[in-house]
From TrEMBL:
InterPro entries: CoA-bd (IPR003781), NAD(P)-bd_dom_sf (IPR036291). This is CoA-binding protein. Residues 22-116 form the CoA-binding domain. It comes from the Bacteria.
Length: 170
């Protein structure tokens, strides 16, 4: 565990309506730490955003040339647009640097994925005028706000108020 993980969380994130507003106002999302590996969370989130969300998606990975058939860029500064949301899949130690880069390019929001919590990065981004979301997944939040998320993480297509029961198999 990192030292950041062991310290108490004092930063307060945006409410659900504020997160919805961030997502609704966004047009372009840059995924920093995007991977070509289908087993990685960034790959799964990327496929969702490309197929089920209304965003222009840009990939930032200095070791890749393409991801999911789209160009990959070495840095946020190399993108052809200013991203509204910088969605980050990087180690804790890298987060303050990514926050600085997001501020430098003029992004509107820094979004740290599930398990990512770095108050230094949040302070850098907020001082630069960015909205900050930490320890939340863009895919999960988008699906939740647009009716596509069931407790199990997918849309069952069934509307019911009954609690599902697990039957014992013999």
């Amino acid at each position: 565990m990192s030292e950041q993980t062991l310290t108490a969380r004092t930063w307060q994130g945006p409410s659900a309506p504020e997160r919805l507003a961030i997502l609704r106002q966004a047009r372009a999302i840059a995924i920093v730490g995007a991977s070509t590996n289908p087993a990685r969370a960034s790959y799964f989130v990327s496929t969702y955003l490309l197929s089920s969300a209304p965003y222009e998606v840009y990939f930032v990975n200095p070791r890749a040339t393409t991801i999911l058939g789209q160009p990959a860029y070495a840095s946020l500064a190399d993108l052809p647009v200013v991203p509204d949301i910088v969605d980050v899949f990087r180690r804790d130690a890298d987060l303050p640097g990514v926050a600085r880069e997001a501020v430098e390019v003029g992004a509107k929001a820094l979004w740290l994925q599930l398990g990512s919590w770095n108050e230094e990065a949040a302070a850098i981004a907020e001082a630069g005028g960015l909205d900050v979301v930490m320890d939340r997944c863009v895919k999960i939040e988008h699906a939740r706000f647009h009716g596509g998320l069931h407790l199990a993480g997918f849309n069952t297509g069934e509307i019911t108020s009954r609690k599902q029961r697990v039957s014992a198999r013999r």
